[in-house]
Amino acid sequence: MISKKTKYGIKALTYLARQEDQTPVAIADIAASEHISIKFLESILLLLRNSGFLGAKKGKGGGYYLIKDPKEISMAKVYRILEGPIALLPCASHNFYEKCDDCDDEVTCAARRLMTEVRDNTLKILESNSLADIAF
């Protein structure tokens, strides 16, 4: 299962993508609309801002807004930022590879073969969907 952080991050991004004029949206408005704790949402939006997906404006009329076109935001990138590796085992990961302590032979490991297939299919789905694809 994905974490609440990832689920809420996706919900917040889709909310922002659906804004017609891309003016800043207050955290409280996103939180109320998507039923997310403001404190938790603040940390998620800050992470997405630091990753280059969002901009922020302070003061009256401030809030968060997308700085990239939703068509350019890959869900695979969003997933990796919020959740971490796409692979369910470290030995099946492209970007976060680690050898398993209990494995003598990765080539014949049934768990690794299965999880590599799961990773490949999950990655294919995430890479073929942009924020625009899921928001509209």
Topology:
Layout: H1 4-17, H2 27-34, H3 38-50, E1 54-57, E2 63-66, H4 75-82, H5 110-127, H6 131-135
Antiparallel strand pairs: 1-2
Helix pairs in contact: 1-2, 1-3, 4-5
Protein name: Rrf2 family transcriptional regulator
Keywords: DNA-binding
GO molecular function: DNA binding; DNA-binding transcription factor activity
Key terms:
single chain; 136 residues; mainly alpha; two-stranded antiparallel ribbon; 6 helices; 49% helix; 6% strand; DNA-binding transcription factor activity; Tscrpt_reg_Rrf2; Rrf2 family transcriptional regulator
Residue share in β-strands: 5-15%
Helical content stands at 40-55%
Query: Which sequence of strands runs across the widest sheet?
Result: 1-2
Poorly predicted spans: none
Specify the biggest β-sheet.
2 strands, antiparallel
| Computed Rg | 17 Å
What's the pLDDT, averaged over the residues? 95
Give the structural class.
Answer: mainly alpha
Total count of helical runs of at least 4 residues: 6
SSE string, helices as H and strands as E: HHHEEHHH
Count the E strands. 2
Shape label: elongated
Amino-to-carboxy terminus distance: 24 Å
Pfam family, one: Rrf2
InterPro entries: Tscrpt_reg_Rrf2, WH-like_DNA-bd_sf, WH_DNA-bd_sf
GO molecular function: DNA binding; DNA-binding transcription factor activity
Protein name: Rrf2 family transcriptional regulator
